[in-house]
Protein: Probable farnesyl diphosphate synthase
Organism: Phyllobacterium myrsinacearum
Amino acid sequence: MMTDQGSSLFQIALQQRAASVEMLLADLLSDRPHTGEISRPPRLMAAMRHGVLNGGKRLRPFLVMESAALFGADTHAALRVATALECIHSYSLVHDDLPAMDNDDMRRGQPTVHRKFDEAAAILAGDSLLTYAFELIAADETELDAGAKVALVTALARAAGIGGMTGGQTLDLEAEKIKPDEAGIIRLQAMKTGALIRFACEAGAIVGNASPGDRERLAEYGSAIGLAFQLADDLLDVTADATDMGKATGKDAAAGKATLVSMHGIDWTKQQLSGLVAEAEELLAPFGAKASLLRDAARFIADRQS
């Protein structure tokens, strides 16, 4: 558990990072065409903004920027990479909410994009956020060397694609028909949720030109907190109400979906969360006090209430 002071400092830092991302996103997603663009259809831009500028903790961007800070990385480059990741994350939510996927009407207390606009607008907004993310990394305004950009694009594509998030979403949909065993659940969650969180931490190391060993250490930290994030999410689906969550709860049980919480119970899940926090803290030990906010992030993820 975090101390009151630690919690306060973490919350301030999280809010500051989120505000920086929100400001950049608002500028990047204006109706004004950028160099090389012919035009920006207003309805598409409105749907994109609704999908990405709708609140949220911006935890993944926070992890990028704090991991980068461990290595004294360029803060503007880290911010742009963090914002690119948030575009990917937001696209995934827009598409996951569609009737063909999770069929959700609310996201962060607001109508989902396909409810606010329509399904076609949601699909196109998600497609646009996905492709825009890679442009943000590759653009001249992201002042990183070519090798770092290639590494980021490759790692992000893998985290978001077949062997990562979209592959995990496929397994999640299949799990509604055939319940996976424990190993299958862990694999599904590592792909659907954990891959982008792992990337967030590894990306900061790439931006900071970290050694291969430190890059792997940050990636492993990301894997630990990624699993913790999904365990906490599944726990909240059982224990929280829709008002606190800003979306429907109890959906896993209603769909008969297997989770580690349904398999092992609430007490076991809480013990696992404590173990994952300890693992994350051990991975961060070599960085000393510089990693204090990343330690707090692990505790926040395990203890979160929404």
